Amino acid sequence: MFYIKSSGYVRDGMVVWILEGEEIDFTEGEFADLVYNLKRRKLFAYLREARPALLDALQIRFRKPLEDLGLEDEDLESRLETALVDLSYRVGR
User: Fold this and answer.
1) Helices (H), the chain
2) pTM score, whole prediction
3) Nearest Cα residue to 73 out of 65, 7, 33
């Protein structure tokens, strides 16, 4: 099974996504745009345009676990999308 540890909070107008112990900061506007776009298209397509460095970092970070489990990028994308939607509910954004 492939688990991703994800949590987060809002502080000083920033949404902080804690992913596997690493903090990823978004302005509240960026985060709202990200969540809105998850409903319209896939996460990686959005990040490819809006935050390509973040997309690269995520794919590098999870490459080995995906390979070890025989999973594809689509599996990672789906789990990250779920984590972001859960975070949006938790932080009320």
Assistant:
1) 28-38, 43-50, 52-69, 73-91
2) 0.87
3) 65
